[in-house]
Amino acid sequence: MKNQQTQQPALKEIIKWLTGITKPVHKPLFISTCFRVFNLIADFTLFAVAGGGVAALIAGSAQVSTVFTALIIASAVKAVAFYFEQFSGHFVAFKALELLRTYAFSKLWPKAPAIVSHSHSGDVLASLTRDVDRIEVFYAHTFAPLVSAVIAPLAILNFIGFYWGWELAIVPLICLLLSIFVLPFFGTKQAFAATQETLVLRRKLAHHVTDSVAGVAEVVGYNQETNRLAEMTDFEDKVAQRANFPRVMVAFRRAVNAALMLISVTGIVFVGLHYGHTVVLVAALATGALRLFEGPRGVEDALGYLDHSIAAARRLWGISNSPLKVTDGDETYAPNTAPTVTWKDVDYHYLDANGNPVKHALENVNITAPAGKRTVILGVSGSGKSTAAQLLMRFDDPETGAIKLDGKDVRNYTLDSLRHNVVLVTQKNQHLDADIATNLRLGAPQATDTQLWEALETVGLKAEVMEMPQQLSTSVGAGGSQLSGGQSQRLALARALLMQPKVLVLDEFSANLNSALEKEIRTHLAEKYAGITIIEITHRLESVAHADQIILIDEGRVVEAGSVAELLAINGQVKRLLERDVRE
């Protein structure tokens, strides 16, 4: 396994990459931006009509009906502009979500499941959910506000300057230019850096919490509760500390924007009266100026979204463009009989977030699982036994050595054909939110109902399903939530058997089964599937009974190997473990 790192792209490359994916939303985004510009202009106009109208009524130069009619028209225009801005904006948002998630899934699918096993806890899920959401925010809440914040206020002030005189526009124009082109960049670089550090710390905190929850047994067993809580608190304090500076800068910019707005209003009043403009006009423009800075306020929010969006885009780019861990072979694997499976001089390391080796999972492993026999790979959690199974399935490839089927390297075969004939069943099973029949047919779409019932009988689930009101049409719920742990595992095993595998790999498949039911299933497998090669991975000593071969793995190395009789005769670790298990 090579240490391959994907170089992070420059901002220009990220933007080009994103715009390439989301090209279908560019036209709707332009339309949404136009309506936002109209909405901001209508907003200014509505306030101007209200302020000028009140002044005109006080001066007696306008009728109440005229003012109310103008207000109704201005309100209607603003309402229409606001509606279409929101409608087109939400279309852009949801379409962008669709495009980004479809793209990400299309890139991740060929890399699965290696991309999951080589990422930190939750990295892939975070990129497909939170990161995509943050990128979508760029389209829905960043581009349009930034563009309209420049166009709408400048258009209004240009109209005022050309139509009534630049003396009325000069003060708000200066304030507006400061608000748009100077203030947003004050402290922005430091705020971006602090935000980046905050996101990294939040990510570490999420990993820490996930690992603590997943490994709660180990945490409690080694009395590490206090240490883990202290580490989590330390992460929380660092997150709060680094997140403080961006918040302070946002508050500062908003306060300055409010001050610039008041200066603009005051400037219009003083300049307007000084140059002899009518009170009605001055009141209208001064009141409208209260909404002139609505666009620049959007810039503040947009900048807050922007750094998160760019950081999320970099993460999604990194995962989407990470190199393939496993490539397809050229040959289709279609054996007529069960093969002999061999691990020959296999070495394998796990990697850290930077791609550096951190743990020797397997070291010079040599195992032979004879054709048509049952081989049990025994070992404690973390010993490397599951890693051996994952390499056989080509979730990844070994650094050195090879895994062979009847003497031929598994890397020669296409992944689909290999995984159709070598089937893995684990204690963590995935089920669709569909009925039992649909879940059973995932690997064998053409299977008949009769074959489904036969598979369910083999795994001891037929009687339970027959008692369900809808039998095979019974929904299993999201992720199999309507099934017990034992039912979920047996349903996964039945699904695997329907694929008619030549090699069946059982990785802790009986973790949620009682001993009697486990024994019954083993008896059925021995009777109905006697010709296939079974490789069972377990830490449960009762599973070794009647095994043709036992392999004991510890810290990534094969410690003992042989039949039950052979291992009992040499008085080694397996014998001591079995004798201790009998005593207990």
Question: What attributes does this structure have?
Answer:
six-stranded mixed beta sheet, Rossmann fold, 10 strands, 584 residues, 20 helices, disordered N terminus, 61% helix, four-stranded antiparallel beta sheet, elongated, alpha/beta, ABC transporter transmembrane region fold, 2 domains
What can be said about this structure in brief?
GO terms for molecular function: ABC-type oligopeptide transporter activity; ATP binding; ATP hydrolysis activity. The chain is of the alpha/beta class.
Structure notes:
It is found in: Cell membrane. By secondary structure, the chain is an alpha/beta fold. It folds into two domains: 13-320, ABC transporter transmembrane region fold; 341-583, Rossmann fold, CATH 3.40.50. Helices cover 61% and strands 11% of the residues. It has helices at residues 11-21, 26-59, 64-108, 114-117, 123-164, 166-181, 188-214, 216-221, 225-274, 279-289, 294-320, 385-392, 415-421, 436-440, 449-458, 462-467, 485-498, 515-528, 564-569, 573-583, and strands at 341-351, 357-369, 374-378, 400-405, 408-409, 422-426, 503-507, 533-538, 549-554, 557-562. The strands form two sheets. A six-stranded mixed β-sheet has the order 6-7-8-3-9-10, with helices on both faces. Strands 2-1-4-5 form a four-stranded antiparallel β-sheet, covered by helices on one side. Helix 2 packs antiparallel against helix 3 (64-108) and helix 9 packs antiparallel against helix 10.
